[in-house]
Write a structure and sequence with these properties.
3-stranded antiparallel beta sheet; Rossmann fold; 8 helices; binds calcium ion; alpha/beta
């Protein structure tokens, strides 16, 4: 068993207290409850590999920014996980003179230390953002579970359908949806897009993209004053599953109602030519998660075992893998030299959930990092179109040894490089 390093104790304690790192059952690689690895045929399933940790409350004036390693990694974070390690094996003879092998295991501590600087360079990106003279309004469609649209960190960043009169029972804008004020619930075919307690998945991604820059709670990557979140619910509240028909309907809604970027933190192994064509012909940019491994919990190659929409060969898709805070590809993350584009932080990500905050892990958390960056860049770089934003993001990725040959860019998301690209 390795000794703990005192230098990293403070942050580790905070996280251990949050219940993330300490106990065997929370070694997320062993978790089988939430990944794509069990996605049933014909269903979409959210991409999220870890069980939920203890939640943090919203407290007026209290900031959790120093726990968001993805934005500012000072190297003080570490993971302590417990895995079975074989300590002895021996043969014993039986009365019939055959032998039986006995192996003994004990739980062994595995420590992974974070590396300072393994982050998306958010603070430098925001400095450039402040210097840029123009702002474009950007609409991001979150195609996911519901979202807590009243969360203090999100309420100011929710898209409002200004052509719709709320609550009058009429489809005022004639788009086919009655009272679709903030989006639509395709799962239940109504206008209730707000998440129920425990419906964390969509709310978590929303916070990463546009959590308020208000000095409390968490901080999102993009400026919620200019980047608005259109909520399109396609997954059910509990198991996080949905069907392709609703995903396609949500994409059509996003396109028809002015969305620029779609975040799709989910996937399926079922190929759907209609979905592929819908994406390919869309003017929107799609940021999608690469998925969290096969049934063993280990990441797999989506060029061999495709997960969609990540593996569709569409120009307007950015497919995202899960980066660990030591700069390695997370062991649950899928990869693919052709089908995956870039890695972004996705393990132990603190963001919003209904009525609070929680750490979640998976490529579901990685995709919103890229979406938030794309929205930030698209808002302030009015000289770029959406494909230009994609190029800026991929071409500015920071190459990392463990990512080379496993994704198109071979690197991790660099928000500073992206917003400064070509200037
Ligand atoms: Ca309407
Ligand atoms: Ca109405
Ligand atoms: Ca905040």
């Amino acid at each position: 068993m390795r000794k703990r390093r005192t230098g990293s104790l403070i942050f580790a304690l905070a996280l251990t207290a949050a219940g993330v790192f300490s106990s065997p059952e929370q070694t997320w690689a062993a978790d089988g409850g939430d990944g794509w690895k069990f996605a049933a045929a014909d269903s979409f399933k959210r991409a999220e590999s870890s069980p939920e940790s203890r939640q943090l409350p919203f407290v007026q004036g209290l900031s959790y920014y120093n726990r968001q390693w993805a934005l500012n990694n000072n190297g003080n974070l570490r993971r302590v996980s417990w895995e079975p390690q074989m300590i002895s094996e021996e043969f014993t003879s039986t009365p019939d003179s055959s032998s039986v092998l006995h192996r003994r295991y004990q739980w062994g501590e595995q420590v992974t230390n974070s590396l300072a600087g393994i982050d998306i360079r958010a603070e430098e990106a925001w400095q450039v953002y402040e210097q840029l003279p123009e702002r474009r309004q950007v609409t991001v469609a979150i195609i996911d579970s519901g979202v807590d649209i009243n969360h203090p960190d999100l309420a100011g960043a929710i898209w409002v359908n200004t052509d719709e009169i709320p609550g009058d029972g009429l489809d005022n804008d004639g788009n086919g949806y009655v009272d679709d004020d903030n989006g639509w619930n395709f799962y239940e075919n109504n206008n209730q897009v707000t998440a129920e307690p425990g419906e964390n998945h969509g709310t978590h991604g929303a916070g990463t993209i546009a959590g308020a820059w208000d000095g409390q709670g968490i901080t999102g990557i993009a400026d919620g004053n200019y980047v608005k979140l259109m909520i399109l619910k396609v997954l059910n509240s509990q198991e996080g599953q949905g069907v392709a028909e609703n995903v396609k309907a949500a994409i059509r809604y996003a396109r028809d109602n002015g969305a620029d970027i779609c975040n799709i933190s989910m996937g399926t192994s079922d190929y759907d030519p209609e979905l592929e064509a819908l994406i390919a012909e869309s003017p929107m940019l799609f940021v999608v998660s690469a998925g969290n491994g096969d049934w063993t919990g280990r990441g797999s190659d989506i060029d061999q075992n495709p997960i969609y929409p990540a593996a569709y060969p569409c120009e307007n898709i950015i497919s995202v893998a899960n980066l660990m805070f030591d700069g390695s590809l997370d062991e649950t993350s899928n990869y693919g030299a052709v089908g995956v584009d870039i890695a972004a932080p996705g393990t132990y990500i603190l963001s919003t959930i209904p009525e609070g905050y929680a750490y979640l892990s998976g490529t579901s958390m990685s995709a919103p990092m890229v979406t938030g960056t794309a929205a930030l860049v698209y808002s302030a770089r009015t000289d770029l179109d959406l494909m230009g934003v994609k190029q800026a993001i991929l071409n500015s990725a920071v190459p990392l040894e463990g990512l080379a040959g496993r994704m198109v860019s071979g690197g991790m998301l660099n928000a500073y490089g992206a917003i400064n690209y070509g200037r």
